[in-house]
Structure formats: structure tokens, C-alpha cells
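Posting for a labmate who doesn't have an account.
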Amino acid sequence: MRVNACCVTMVVVSTLLVSGTIARAQSAVPCVLGVMSYAGLGQQNITGAPYSAALRTSFEQKLPDGNAIRSSQIVHQARDSKGRTLNEAPIGCTHAEDGRLKAVVAVTVFDPTTKTIMNWQVDDTVSKVVHVYVMHEPNRKLPTAEEAAEQMNRSQMAARTQKNNEVRIENLGSKTVAGVQVEGVRRVRTIPAGEEGNDLPMEVIDEQWSSKALSLILRRIDDDPRRGRTTVEFEDLSLSEPDPAVFAAPAGYKIVEQHQVETTVAP
């Protein structure tokens, strides 16, 4: 399978989460250009807060000659009361039989009850295989003196970089997104003139509207003059318990168990 990686850029924030019912039916979605997909806006290992939804990601970049690039795509997500999550999102482009580009869709299911991650692709040009990864806790060990010194050095360098970039935090209050009350925070980072070859200071905006009750970011805006503006917003949000069948491997797919995956342990 030939995948055009430049068509879609994936920005993974956490474990992926999506609605399997829609995932089974979205193999013919069109391929779009320039979209950054913020997968995993919902936190993993959250129980008692089920939902299913479509997330619309819209991208716009204005070019110096007056031209503009605009595109959008849909990602589907679901989470049940046990904390199982499912995500369906385009990961690239391939050519259909008629020669037109179509999206390659990947589906990922995370199940904390069995400590497994399943993923597969919805694409007629690849084998129908579900890869199952079994997770386990890594052995904890204290860092050596050299490793500790290197960690401190990286932290100090990051702190110096942060000092050179002014960050302003704005409380935006509350509003309703997809029928849910959310609280908004905007972070504006100012890049000083000359730091990245820029003649004038630049502002990079990260705006988030989140629900503490659901542990979800229901709306996010990433506005960066170097890359354009990306908006991610929940649509068709349902807080009902998803059908358990959406977290199962699709019929007709071969199940292949892979090597174990170590879970990340925060220091």
C-alpha cells in the first residue's frame, strides 16, 4: 500500500479513542490535505463517564500571496463506563480504484480491563488484520548520577527557553459546547523578534474549552502564524453508554497478538 504521508499530519496527545460503529462504515471517506488531527482529547483510564461523539477538525492557512488552504476531517471517538476507549481517524492517503485519493482510516481500541490495545485499518488494499498488544508495567529503577545530571541540564535549558518566550494566560469563563458546560483557558505565547528569524514578535495561541466532569477537551484552537489555524470541536455528543460491540474486533479480521508493550510510568 502506498501512503502519502504529507496528506494528513497526526498529532497524538494520548491514547486514541473512537466509535467503532461509525468506524466500520467510514472506509470510503475522502482524503483531505493539511489537517492536523488532535487525537486523544479525552484522558485514558477514566471510568464512569461514557460518551460517543464526532470531532470535526478544521484547518486554515493564509498564504502571503493572498491564497489560502482550507480543509476539514471527522474523527470518531467513544468511551464506556469501564474506561474502554475507541478512536477512528485518517492516517494518510492512498489511491482508490478510480484513481482518486481516499483516506486510510485507522481504528484503535484501548481496554484497561484486559490491559490490551487493538488496532486495525479500514482499507480494502491492506490485509484484514487486528493487531493486539498486551501491556505490562515496566520495572522501575532509579536514574544513575549521569542520567540525573542530564535530566537536570535539560530542565534548565527548557526553563531558559521559557523565559525568552512570554506566556500570557487568560481565563475565558464558561459556555456551552455540544450541550455541555465547559470552562475556557487561552494561552498566548509571544516569540520575540529574531528568535526564529522573524522580523516582528509572533503570538502563538492555544485555546481550550474543557469539561472536568467528563475529563474531555470539547473545543480546542491552535493558532500559529507559522503553521495556520486548527480548530477541533465535538459534534453529535452522546453521554449514553456505547454499544459494547463497538469495542470488539470487526468480523472477518484475523487476530494477531504482538509483543508486549510497556506502559509509561510518570517520574
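Reply:
Got it, the C-alpha cells are right above this. The radius of gyration is 21 Å.
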